Amino acid sequence: MSKQEQAISILKQFSDIELDRFIAYFGIIYPAGESNDMEERRAAFERMKRVCRYIPDLDEKKELEEYRKERFGV
Length: 74
Fold this sequence. Notes:
By secondary structure, the protein is an all-alpha fold.
């Protein structure tokens, strides 16, 4: 007997309530909408790369000094 046949014979023994619980349980473990499609992942990565921008290096001391001059006139 194949694994599929074994699974089917077990499922045939379940009542409707037991099947509902079984489906709900497996829906939590293996969500139907979840996909491991590599193309989908690559497209998401490309979208993320388009959002990334260059951030120039900051000289914190210089920035703080300029802010203090503007704010407090020091």
